[in-house]
Design goal:
alpha+beta; 3-stranded antiparallel β-sheet; 14 helices; 384 residues; Rhomboid-like fold
């Protein structure tokens, strides 16, 4: 999607595209249709879907786009912008089959030499107006991209479908599907290590879960046990396999990018403070309770809130009111907070044993971290 291209690389990085064939930096160019990027080595071209629709008949472009999104075709070459593999889509033109590389994530179409020339063209009416300068064409193209970005958000919110049928299965359990994945600059060592540690501790505890939770879960009335160690030990324990898998999924999906931008130290600090703050919120809700509380949800809620605000143009797919909806993560965060507030009411009234207050406490730390660190990335190029 254009949303992906703009949110991952930013406008000022649109010149820094790489040829998927020979890995050469592409040169920006433009004509009456708009901007495109040319490989000086092999003469291949990267063109956005919006520009292609002006030059090639719309029905043919629509067929190409629908096939690219269908998931039926595979490819080996990487998108010039997001580096994802582009499906190679066949299209019949002039009794010859052309194979066009299309990135369905950032709307880039890659044309090998002569592929574009072999496709039929839209008849252009002669205009008497004075041609625009390169700077004016570039400004107009970027303005159109911004407009398309807003239209894309509206379209995703109103009507969309999953890219693959299997994505519906986790969505039925309330698990969002991540789109617009942002490439990592560093290996998420802390995220991987936490995932392994949580899995090992939880699996070992499953052998005698009741004793493990009673011994090392957080009990509000006895939160000072082991010198407060249960504030941390309860993070690694889970009440069952579904509880464990759900938390690991959110940690894996939203933790790697958060660690990548925060750095290992601040990322670990975020998780620790979010976990403890979530536990404090839980303790304050029922300070005399002797019911143990376990799970990594408080710390992961901090990661989730930070990710949604830091990568606000990323999107997720989920089932909402019995229909598939693809939305920006900030909308997901808003919906999630509303549900947590409702859950907190049910928790306080004794109608739920899920500690939504711990989730809200952890999320508040993620929001504060984003607020405090936003100045450090506001001037960088690759800001989501």
């Amino acid at each position: 999607m254009y949303v992906t291209l703009l949110s991952i690389v930013g406008h000022s990085q649109l010149d820094m595209l790489t040829c998927p064939s020979c890995k050469t930096s592409l040169n920006k160019n433009g004509n009456k249709f708009g901007l495109f990027w040319v490989c000086p080595s092999c003469d291949g071209r990267a063109v956005t879907l919006e520009v292609v629709r002006k030059a090639i008949p719309r029905p043919m472009v629509n067929r190409l786009w629908q096939r690219a999104r269908s998931g039926q075709y595979e490819g080996t070459r990487q998108c010039p912008a997001c580096r994802r593999r582009m499906p190679e889509v066949p299209i019949l033109s002039r009794e010859k089959t052309e194979y066009i590389d299309i990135c369905s994530k950032c709307h880039f179409i890659w044309f090998d030499p002569h592929e574009f020339e072999h496709l039929p063209k839209v008849e252009i009416k002669q205009s008497q107006s004075q041609p625009l300068s390169m700077e004016a064409r570039e400004a107009l193209a970027l303005a159109r991209l911004e407009s398309l970005k807003k239209e894309q958000v509206q379209q995703e919110m109103s009507s969309s479908s999953p890219d693959h049928w299997w994505e519906v299965i986790p969505a039925l359990f309330g698990i969002p599907i991540e789109y617009n994945y942002t490439p990592l600059k560093h290996k998420p060592i802390v995220t991987w290590s936490l995932a392994v540690a949580i899995t090992l501790v939880s699996v070992i505890a499953f052998r005698n879960l009741g004793a493990a939770i009673t011994g090392f879960g957080l009990i509000p009335a006895e939160f000072t046990r082991y010198f407060g160690f249960t504030l941390i030990s309860s993070f690694f324990l889970h009440g069952g396999i579904i509880h464990l898998i759900g938390n690991l999924y959110f940690l894996w999906v939203f933790g790697d990018n958060t660690e990548d931008v925060l750095g290992k130290r601040d990322y670990l600090l975020l998780i620790t403070i979010a976990t403890i703050t979530g536990h404090i919120a839980h303790i304050l809700s029922a300070p005399g309770s002797t019911v143990p509380c376990v799970g990594a949800s408080g710390g992961i809620s901090g990661i989730l809130a930070y990710y949604c605000l830091r990568f606000r143009n990323a999107s997720v797919g989920m089932i909402l009111f019995f229909r598939w909806v693809r939305m920006p993560v900030v909308f997901m965060l808003a919906i999630w907070i509303i549900f947590q507030i409702l859950g907190a009411y049910l928790q306080v009234t004794g109608l739920s044993n899920v500690s939504a207050l711990a989730h809200l406490g952890g999320a508040s730390v993620g929001i504060i971290f984003w607020w405090k660190t936003r100045a450090s990335f506001s001037k960088t190029v690759a800001v989501n």
